[in-house]
Fold this protein.
Amino acid sequence: MAMHGKRILIKMVNKATGTFYVTVKNPKNTTDKLKLKKYDKKTRKVEEFVEDKVK
């Protein structure tokens, strides 16, 4: 992914299964951690994913 401006890479992780998505966010506008409901391929259901650091 190309980096534009102040956006940073974040990893959205499902803590139960370990499945993750990688996306970007602007930390200036969104200061708290993201919690999104996304599709989990392992469980085949929509579950909650929480923001984590990309290593």
Remarks:
- The beta strands are 8-13, 20-25, 35-40, 45-52.
- The chain has no helices and four strands.
- The chain has a mean pLDDT of 92.
- The radius of gyration is 12 Å.
